[in-house]
Amino acid sequence: MSIIDTHCHLDAGEFDADRDAAYDRACRAGVALQVIPAVTRDNFAAVADACRRYPRCLPAWGMHPMYIHVHHRSHLEDLRRQIADWRPVAIGEIGLDLFVPGLDYATQEYFYVEQLKIAREFDLPVLLHCRRANDPILKHLRRVGVKGGIAHAFNGSRQQADAFLKLGFKLGFGGAFTYSRATRLRALAAELPLEAIVLETDSPDIPPAWIAGRRNEPAELAGIARALAELRALPVDEVARATTANACGVLGLTAQGANGAVTPEAVSFPSP
């Protein structure tokens, strides 16, 4: 089985003690590629270091809505320079968060919209943080217009899911749907067209049910793929092939491995 983790934070401090081992476990579990999104301008260096150190990691550059207290308007030009220096797989993690209290909406909206414009300028997809904010996220996507991307940790309605799909997006599913109590999310994971779904861990966050309360890591993507296959009554290899093809398509990757398998050697993508 060969799978892509479309959203993980291997650069996070939670992995400082065993980052090499976590990366090796993911490789052994069949995770062919990991997309590591930045969250602030000052985080670009840590993401870049991880992606240089680990050949199966690809960067996304962006500024997360939960860190608006550290973002400055000048950082948008820094983002442009970073993209020019190392073309990423996407712009992200960007978006809106209406769950965490105290995050000024107008500031969130400003940085979200400006980063959408940058994604359009560089013809790149986006990785969206859209916690309790699907409708305003979609409103700005329709207005600005980008080439698609991934609605990370999707947890909206079927109507919202269909709206993202019409705009060329895929929907990220990870540990959240593995909990039996997540009935609405599990129904979406079971019923959406398979071509709509990509897999993710959001490591070190959103652990799947079997490690609830513990640190998540990219190796758990194999279990997430199996959980999705079981939910949809499909062979896990079929789920792995489809979600990998979906990720490659939306992120502009070209995979030419044997039998459709994705390996680092089979993926064509610009490097620094």
According to CATH, what is the topology?
Answer: TIM Barrel
Largest sheet: 8 strands, parallel
Under CATH at level 1, the class stands as Alpha Beta
Query: From the 3D coordinates, which CATH architecture would you assign?
Result: Alpha-Beta Barrel
Q: How do the strands of the widest beta sheet line up side by side?
A: 1-2-3-4-5-6-7-8
Q: Would you identify the CATH H-level superfamily? A: Metal-dependent hydrolases
Gyration radius over CA: 17 Å
Number of domains: 1
Secondary-structure element string: EHEHEHEHEHEHEHEHHEE
User: What is the overall pLDDT average?
Assistant: 93
Beta fraction: 15-25%
Overall geometric form: globular
- Report how far the terminal alpha carbons are from each other: 28 Å
> What percent of residues adopt helix (DSSP H or I)?
25-40%
Uncertain parts: 256-272
Structure description:
There is one protein chain. By secondary structure, the chain is α/β, with parallel strands linked by helices. The protein has a single domain (about 5-270), classed as TIM Barrel. It is built from nine helices and ten strands. It has helices at about 20-30, 45-55, 75-85, 105-120, 135-145, 160-165, 185-190, 220-230, 235-250, and strands at about 5, 30-35, 55-60, 90-95, 125-130, 150, 170-175, 195-200, 255, 265-270. An eight-stranded parallel β-sheet has the order 1-2-3-4-5-6-7-8, sandwiched between helices. β7, α7 and β8 (about 195-200) form a beta-alpha-beta unit. α8 crosses α9 (about 235-250). The longest helix has 18 residues, at about 105-120. The protein is globular and about 50 Å long. The two termini are about 30 Å apart. The model is unreliable at about 255-270 (pLDDT under 50).
